[in-house]
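Q: What structure does this chain adopt?
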Amino acid sequence: MAQNNRSYSSGPGAVDSGMIEKVVFINRCAKVVKGGRRFSFSALSVVGDGKGSVGIGYGKAKEVPEAIRKATESAKKRMVPVKLRGDTIPHEVLGVYDGGKVFLRPATTGTGLIAGGGVRAVLEAAGVKNVLTKSMGSKNHIAVVNATLAGLRKLRMAEDFKSARSAV
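A:
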């Protein structure tokens, strides 16, 4: 029961306080007990401000809305800053997490967001508008989303290198 790039709240993606919330994936888990099956749900959510800050959350509960709420709260608590150059990324980067690998390449204005699934959700929430991506390895939603975030966290600006060199 995958829900790619659907926002759970009022409006298309944007909710109160200017945050972009995206539910990437909802999973149903069944436990067989004496009377039948007991279902529980887990949700993978991405939250960002669209200006270079993004977070990922994972929540589990007996009901879908509660799992989404937990995932969204977790994502808001784990927001990290991302280095952007205009509406794209400063350089090519490969993000790796478990079996998931995501290659991110900057693109010129007008290219758009060439990405799918969880990668698109993370980049939209971070505020990236023009980028080329390739997801390799695992197709697991959690691995792909975390690999995308790992790649974004690796990004550095030219000024960062200059200041580091001048400090030595």
